[in-house]
């Protein structure tokens, strides 16, 4: 029978491999290689070798056709029991967090007792497509029964058919890249270059300090010779970043925007009883989640502003205010996007006209924002970011002994995934 109540969902821990710059140390590593490595690190840390779990949910934004069953193949290549089912999830940059939500919901409803969720992405091994005309010819060629039919199809090939189609970092509905969209939002909200550079420099400095104090010792396992995130620049300062030329609009640079990255992360979730039976401490509990989307095509909203809508809806359901948190983990796709989201929450017109609220959500204590650094320093392998953030926040709450943390992740397609962790 189903449980008579919703069960608490415990975050037991996480593991990821260090994130690398595109074309760097992981240039020859596949999505399957990286997520299997992240899985095995988690399995080893929590003594799960040979054990059957309820399920593994994971995904990647950029996948080859051979990876149609990516999560399951990674399980089969891992130290987990081959009887552990797995499936793929994809919601752009929100993939990792959405996978965690999927597993958490099943735990809460009594459908399983423990599972793993996460994500992986590589832009070094991005899938290239053949020309559509060539693809059609090849499909027909595969089904041709006679030599004459095959030769007739081959005669239709043209030199232009061999030009591959490379994945574009652009929204299909607008043709604009994510950076170009973010630049429009930055201009609308009046986000200064100085504020962006300060946020970016702080991200590097805080991530470096967290590594130095050993915070990530039980959250990261080495891979391909890397022990720390390759993009990390401990000596980064706002003055140094100020020397970089704009890449998007007038204020956004390579220094205050996340680089293309490769990496993978995984998080172990369970019931309290499952954890207790294995003497595993609970780091935190996943208590609320919310997903939102905005019309960035026909509407007047920014591509990456959906979390600005998701968070107030989630707070309303939770009976909380924006100031009721000890930590704020806001994904740093771009420094400007973090600052625009914070500005929207403080804006009375946005609250009234867009959120239908009488008052703005208000400011946050910036000292509680991304206290161990975030994507600007670590990098952003799209589907791996959610797992990184959840594992980091859960450990922060565990170290503190109690508290509450807010997670906000913007995603392509005008979407946002948010969550609350509590201890």
UniProtKB/TrEMBL annotation:
Cite the InterPro entries for this sequence: 3-ketoacyl-CoA_Thiolase, Thiolase, Thiolase-like, Thiolase_C, Thiolase_N
Residues of the active site are 93, 380, 410
Q: Which species is listed as the source? A: Actinokineospora auranticolor
One molecular function GO term is:
acyltransferase activity, transferring groups other than amino-acyl groups
Q: What is this protein called?
A: Acetyl-CoA C-acetyltransferase
Membership in a protein family: Belongs to the thiolase-like superfamily. Thiolase family.
Q: Where is the Thiolase N-terminal domain?
A: 9-273
Keywords annotated in UniProt:
Acyltransferase, Transferase
Domain Thiolase C-terminal spans what residues?
283-423
A Pfam family per the record: Thiolase_C
Instruction: Please list which residues make up the signal peptide.
Output: none
One cellular component term from this protein's GO annotations in UniProt = cytosol
Q: Does the keyword Acetylation apply?
A: no
């Amino acid at each position: 029978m189903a449980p008579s109540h919703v069960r608490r969902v415990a975050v037991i821990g996480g593991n990821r491999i260090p994130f690398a710059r595109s074309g760097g140390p992981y240039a020859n590593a596949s999505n399957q290689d990286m997520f299997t490595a992240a899985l095995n690190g988690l399995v080893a840390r929590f003594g799960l070798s040979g054990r059957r779990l309820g399920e593994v949910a994971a995904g990647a934004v950029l996948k080859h056709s051979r990876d149609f069953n990516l999560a399951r193949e990674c399980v089969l290549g891992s130290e987990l029991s081959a009887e552990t089912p797995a499936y793929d999830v994809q919601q752009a940059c929100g993939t990792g967090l959405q996978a965690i939500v999927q597993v958490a919901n099943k735990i809460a409803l009594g459908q399983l007792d423990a599972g793993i969720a996460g994500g992986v992405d590589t832009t070094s091994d991005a899938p290239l497509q053949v020309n559509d005309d060539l693809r059609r010819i090849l499909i027909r060629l595969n089904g041709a029964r006679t030599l004459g039919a095959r030769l007739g199809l081959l005669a239709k090939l043209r030199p232009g058919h061999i030009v591959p189609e490379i994945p574009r970092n652009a929204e299909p509905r607008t043709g604009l890249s994510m950076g170009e969209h973010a630049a429009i939002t930055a201009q609308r909200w009046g986000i200064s270059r100085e504020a962006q550079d300060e946020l970016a420099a702080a991200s590097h400095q805080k991530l470096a300090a967290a590594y130095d104090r050993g915070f990530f010792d039980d959250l990261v396992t080495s891979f391909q010779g890397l022990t720390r995130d390759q993009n990390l620049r401990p000596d980064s300062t706002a003055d140094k970043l100020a020397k970089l030329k704009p890449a998007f609009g007038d204020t956004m640079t390579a220094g205050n925007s996340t680089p293309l990255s490769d990496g993978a992360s995984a998080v172990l979730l369970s019931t309290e009883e499952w954890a207790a039976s294995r003497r595993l401490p609970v780091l935190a509990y996943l208590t609320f989640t919310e997903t939102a989307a905005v019309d960035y095509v026909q509407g007047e909203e920014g591509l990456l502003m959906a979390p600005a809508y998701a968070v107030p809806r989630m707070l309303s359901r939770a009976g909380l205010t924006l100031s009721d948190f000890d930590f704020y983990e806001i994904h740093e796709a771009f420094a400007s996007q973090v600052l625009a989201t914070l500005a929207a929450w403080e804006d009375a017109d946005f609250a009234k006209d867009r959120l239908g609220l009488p008052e703005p959500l208000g400011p946050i204590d910036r000292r509680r924002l991304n206290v161990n650094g975030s994507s600007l320093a670590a990098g952003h392998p799209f589907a791996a970011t959610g797992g990184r953030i959840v594992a980091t926040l859960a450990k922060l709450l565990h170290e503190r002994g109690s508290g509450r943390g807010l997670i906000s992740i913007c995603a392509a397609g005008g979407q946002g995934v948010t969550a609350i962790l509590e201890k």
